[in-house]
Amino acid sequence: MTELQPSRLDAERDAGANALYAWAYDHFFVSVWQRVVRGRPIREHMALLERTQWLAADEIERLQLASLRALLDHAGRHIPYWRELFARTRFDPRGVRSPVDLQALPVLTRDTVQDRFEDLRDPTRRRENIRKGTSGTTGVPLRFEYCNESEAWRQATRLRGYGWAGYRMGLPTLHYWGAGASVARGLAAGKIRLDRRLRREVYVDAVKQDEASLRRTVDLLRRMRPHAIVAYTQALVSFARWAADRGLRDWPDIQVVCAAEPLLPGNREAIEVAFGPHVFETYGSRETMLIAAECEANDGMHLSEENVLVEIARDGEPVPAGEPGDVLVTDLHNYGMPFIRYANGDVATLSPNGPCRCGRGLRKLARVEGRRVDTLRDAHGEPVSGMLFISLMQTDTQMLRAFQVVQRKSGDVDLYVVRGSDWDDVRFAATVRRAQSYFKGLPLRVTLCDEIPASKSGKRRPIVVES
User: Fold this and answer.
1) pLDDT tens for residues 57-113?
2) pLDDT band at residue 249 under the 50/70/90 scheme
3) For residues 296 and 358, what is the distance between their CA atoms, to the nearest angstrom?
4) What is the pLDDT of residues 177-206, one digit of tens each?
5) What residues does 447 pair with on adjacent strands?
6) Which CATH superfamily is domain 42-369 in?
7) Is 334 helix (H, G, I), strand (E, B) or coil?
8) Alpha-carbon distance 410 to 391, whole Å?
9) Which pTM does this prediction carry?
10) 375-465: which CATH number, 3.30.300.30, 3.30.70.3400, 3.40.50.300, 3.40.1190.20?
11) Is 81 within 8 Å of 291 (Cβ atoms)?
12) Cα–Cα distance measured from residue 232 to residue 261, given in angstroms and rounded to the nearest whole number
């Protein structure tokens, strides 16, 4: 009989201990603590979602319609803003026979949420609601709330979506994160630290991209050997290219969940070099959490249709699959502050390819194009798509480690570039000339730098348009 090497024995022992802990965490914390103490049947919702994802598309739509009608009925009876709007537009929730009927309502904008915040809340749930906020792209904070029922659905949906990527609760996970990676002192911070320790999650501040910080992250990966990485996409791409340039990888393949930012052309290849082929894109927003996630087919992102209803529209009207449009989302279980046809500021495209080969009946997004505000303008005021510029800058993924385009209020365009391992002055000059051709009559200034600072939230937006 072949004798196992000590290192292999240790690895198998660790794997067994990790699996046992993950099972205990799942069955105790999620089932008992969340269900009994916090009133969130997350595990029950997860079991339901595991079944409903395999239903046919028309069956999923029927389930979605039932949730939609219940939400609309509640909003019309209990929420001042929606009661007023339904009366003014003569919209009767009882007459909704299809998600298409929702198009009779105007789009809910960010400005409306700010202006009518009090009227959008359920008066009977104000003390129970979970309060959150987001700064958005303009830095103007947006307050919003959601009920405990919605939190249970959000967590179950997230765990299913991440599960498609191989993520499992209770197994060592590295979060290469922005806002919230570091916590202050005090009782609340202590609870957060304890929660992360129980989850076996380690958070690294992805905003810090200096040499010393990147080296510390490499050391952590080598010690920790996480089963998964959940990361701000652009920060992880920058780290992956830095590590690959220096040949630092000595860890096995890791499941990677890309979050908070789109996975742009060339990003996937850069991450695969550093962490292996298991790279999965997700899409969500702070207002509604996970909206869509990639399955094992890696061919678009399945919408979380049991929890959100997503429309892709232009001027409130639907656009065909394959064409980009504004993302309008209805949170089907937020009874505390219903968001119905909410324009979250993103632009996305529905997949025109039909059912996924994985067999799930959930519709898919082909891609998230970016923020609506990420459209630049030339000297004549004509739009220049931010995605076109992104594609131009990333035709050679090894030439640039990172970049950012900033259009100033004056119209001037600044291009900040972090050089990659395959930097070439001649090829880059040709790329700049092509970029300049899109901005007729406007100067394009190029600045070479060592790193591109993140925003306060930790995100590194490749396209910034000053307002």
Assistant:
1) 999 999 999 999 999 999 999 999 999 999 999 999 999 999 999 999 999 998 899
2) very high
3) 7
4) 875 666 667 777 788 888 888 889 999 988
5) 416
6) ANL, N-terminal domain (3.40.50.12780)
7) coil
8) 24
9) 0.82
10) 3.30.300.30
11) no
12) 6
- Average of per-residue pLDDT across 335-349: 95
Amino acid, single-letter form, for residue 228: A
**302, 349, 314, 411: which is closest to 52 by C-alpha?**
302
Find the helix or strand (DSSP H, E) in which 302 lies: strand 301-303
Name the β-bridge partners of 348: 325, 368
Structure tokens at 14: 């660790």
Where in the chain are all domains bearing CATH 3.30.300.30?
375-465
Q: Which residue has the higher pLDDT, 57 or 394?
A: 57
d(CA 132, CA 144): 6
Residue 365 pairs with which residues in a beta bridge? 301, 350
- Strand-pair category, 400-407 with 173-177: unpaired
Query: Where, residue-wise, is CATH 3.40.50.12780 in the chain?
Result: 42-369
Is the separation of the CB atoms in 336 and 129 below 8 Å? yes
